[in-house]
Write a structure and sequence with these properties.
heterodimer; A: mainly alpha; 75% helix; 0% strand; elongated; B: mainly alpha; Four Helix Bundle (Hemerythrin (Met), subunit A); two-stranded antiparallel sheet; 25 helices; 2% strand
Chain lengths: 106, 826
Amino acid sequence: MSDILRISLPLTVWLASFSAVYGLQGVACSQHWAAAGLDVATARVVLTAAWIAALAVQVAFVFVLGSPRFASRSLFVRTVSRILAAAGLVTTLWTLFPVVTTSVCI
Amino acid sequence: MNALRRHRELERIWSSRPGWRGKLTTVNNNDIGLMFMFVATAYFVIGGILAMLIRSQLASPHSAFMGPDVYNQVFTMHGTIMMFLFAIPLFEGLTMHVLPRMLGTRDMAFPRLSAFGLWCYVFGGSILIFALLAGVAPDSGWFMYPPLASTLGSPGVNADFWLIGITFVEISAISAAVEIVTTVLLYRAPGMSLEKLPIFAWYMLVVAVMILTAFPPLILGSILLELERAFGMPFFQVAQGGDSLLWQHLFWIFAHPEVYIIFLPGAAVISTVLPVMARTTLLGYRWIVVATVALGILSFGLWVHHMFTTGLPHMGLAFFSAASTLVAVPTGIQIFAWIGTLWKGRPEMHLPMLWIVAFFATFVLGGLTGVMVAIVPFNWQTHDTYFIVAHFHYVLVGGFVFPMLAGLYYWLPHFTGRKRYFKTGETAFWLVVLGFHGTFLLLHWAGLLGMRRRIDTVEAGSGWELINLLASIGGFAMAIGFALVLLDVAVNVAVSTRSRRNPWRAGTLEWAALSPSPSYNMASLPEIRSRYPLYDDPELPARIARGEGYLGEPRDGLRENLAVDISSGRPRCLVIFPTNSVLPIIMAAVTGGLFVGMLIKAYWLVPVSLVGMAVIATWWAWTLGSGEDQDPRPVGNGLVLPLASELKRPPGWWGSLFLLLADVVFMGSLLFGYAFLWTVAPNWPPPAYLKPGLLGPVLVLGGAALSFGGIRLAQRALRHDEKPWPGLLLNFAGLVSLGGAAGTVLARTVHDAHAFDATLWVIAGYVIFHVIVAVLMTMFLTLRAVAGYLSSRRIGEANIVGLWSDYAAVVALLGLGAAWLPGAFT
C-alpha cells in the first residue's frame, strides 16, 4: 500500500492545497474577513504565503521520493512517483499563480 | 487429473445454477458482467430513442411534435440515462467480465457484492424508467439545479424520482468501485507486481478510486435536496440561509470527475486494444500510468469551470481556468503514446481498429473544444449553448462509446464464444461515425450562432433551422448505425462459428482462457514474469489448462483463490469465495424498500427496510469465516498459505477501508457545504448559533475515549486468547454516549428553521447513523465471539469492526465539534 501512497500522494496534496487556497480566497472575500479587521492587501499576503507553503510541500515530495530512505524499492514505482512529484510541483506553480497576478475579490 | 476433467470439475464448482433462477442467484463475474452490459445496452436503446425524439422535435421550426413539458422530461431523461444508467454500468460490466482473467485470478474480490450492485442498478434504473413511462419523469435537466429542481420549480414528484432513483443506482457504482480496487490490489496472479499490471487494470484502479471519491458529493447533494423537498430543510433556499450555488458545487465536484470516470475506461480499452491491432506492445507504459494517475486527480480540481458565469471573483476563475488547461497535458501524453505505438507497429484495420481511428478523429476535436471552453471569456460566450452540447458529445461519444465498441468487437469471443462472420459491423461503423459528425459538428455552429441548450423549439428566421434539420438527419443515420451494431452482434451470436482461443494473437492473460470464458476463468493461476505473458510463453494457456500453476487441483468443492501482496504480487493467503446465493437480490430488494418508502412518502417503510437490511447483512456476514483455527494449506508449486480468515487484515478489511474512503469524502463534502454556507450564503449568521453547553462535549469526548479504548482492549484480549467482553462492553458504552451527544444537537435545534439548523441535523444524523452501524457490528462481534468464530488467529473480524468503530468516533468528534464551533465563539 505504501507504493500506492507514493504514487498518489503528491497530486492529492496538490488537490488539497488547491482547494484550501480557493477556500481561503472565499473567506478573504467574505464578510468575516472584514469583520476581523483585515483588508484585501492582507488577503493577498496570506494567499501568497499559502501558495509558497504549498510549493514547499511539493518540493519536499520531490526530494523525499528521491531519497534512499523513503523511495520505493521498485524501480517502476520510484520512477512513476518521482515524475508525479515533479508534476505536483509544476501543477501547484501553474494553478495557484493567480494569487499574485489577479484581483482578489473583484 | 487431465485438462478436460479439471475443466468439468471447476465448472461444477464455479458456475451458476441452470435456468433463469440461476441468473437471480449467480455471483459469478462472467454472469454479472454480461448482465450489467445487457441491461446497460437496454438503457442505451431507451436513451437513444429519447435522443431521436429530441432531434425530431428540433428538425423543423415551431415543431408541434412535443410540448415543452414532455420535451423537458425527454432531454432530462436522455442525459440522465446516458450518464448514470448506460456509461458507468457498461464499463463496470466490461471490467467485471474481463478484469479477473486479465489479472489471472478466478473472480472479483467480493462476488456477492457484485450481484448486490447489479440488482441495485436494475431496481434503481427501473424506478426512473417507470417515471418516464408514467409521464412523471424528472424534467429539470440532468444536473437538477435548484431552485428549478426544488419544490419552488418542481412541485411534483418528478425531481424526487431523479434524486432517489439515482442515489439507489449509485450504491451499485460504489459497490463496483470497492470491488475493482480490492481486486486490482489483492487478487492477481502470483508474481504480477505493480509494474507488470495490465494497463487496463491501472486505468480501472484509478477510475474506481475516482468513483469512490467523486460520487459521495452527489449522494450528499441528492440527500440534501430531497430533505429540502420532503421536510422543508432549507439548504438551497436563500431566504432561510441556504444557497442554490451549494448544489452547483456539490454537483460539479462529482460531475467533472465523472467525465473522466467515463473517458478513462475508454482510454483503457484503447491502450489495451490498439497495441494488439498494431501488432506491437504499448509504447510508454510508465508515462501512461503517470498520465492516468495525474488525470484522475487533476480532474477533481476543475469543477468550477462549469460555474464561470455565476459571478465568481477573477482569482477564482483564474485558478480553475489554469487547472482546466492543464488536463490537456496528461491527455496529450496518452494520445502521443498511442500514436507512437501505431508508429512502431504494423496496424491492421480490423473492426476494433476502425473504431479506434474514429475515437482519434472525434475525441481529439472534443479535447480541443474543451481547451477552448476552459478559457473564461470564450466560456462566457458559449455557456449553455449548443457549442457545449456538441463539445461534450464529442468527448463522451468519441472518448467512451467508440472505444467501448472497439472493446465490444475485440472481446466478443469472450462474451459469446463466436468469431465474427458477417460484415454488418463495418456498415454500422460508417453510419455511426458519419452520422455522429453530421449531427454534432454542425451543432457547434448552431451554438456559436447563439442557439441555447434545452429550448424546445427552433424559431423560424433564427438561422439555426437548416443546421438542425441536417443534424437531425445525421442523428437518425447514427441511430440506424447503432441498431445495426446490435443486429450484427445478435446475428453473429446466433449463427457464427465458434472462436478459437486468442484469435487476435494478443499478449495479455485474458486470452489464455477458453472462449466463451469459463466460469472459473483460470484453470490454474500462473506465475507472471512480464506484462505480456502470452508473448513470453505461447504455451502458457495449455500449461494453465493442465493445472501447472497454483490451485490446479480442485479441492472439496470449494471456490479457492489466491490473494497477493499489493506491491510485489507475492502470494499471501488462500481465499475461499462464497457460492451462489439469493442474498444479494433480496438485499437489493429490501434496500429498494428504503428508497421507495421515501419516494411515495410511506415513511414507515424506511425503518422497516433498515431493520431488514441489518438482519440480512448479519445473515450475509455470518456465513463467512470459520468456527475453528485452520492449518495452512498447500496451494501448488510447493507453497503453503494460511486462509484469508486468519489474516489480521483480510480482504474484507481492505474492502471496508476503501468503502470508508468514500465515507470520508462524504463527511468532507458535508463539512465543505457547512463552511460554504457560513462563508458565502447571504442570510447568515442564523438567528442563534448552537451553544455547546457541557453535556454534549462531555458525552462526545468520553464516548470517543471509551470507544477507542474499548475496541482496542477487545482486540488485545482476542490476541491473547482471552475473553473480549470488557472491551466490547466499553466500546458499546462509548458508542451509545456518542449517539447521545448527537442527540443533544437534534434536541436543541429545529430542522427547518434555518440552513444552519438543517445542516446540524444532517451532521447529527450522519453521526447517529455511523454509531448505529458500529453498535450493530459490535453486537455481531459479540455473537461471533460467543459462537467461537474469534481467536488469536482469527482476529480479522475484530479489526474490521475496529475500523468502523473508530470512524464513528472520529466523525462524532469532527462533526459535532464543527456544529458547536460557531456557538463557542459568539
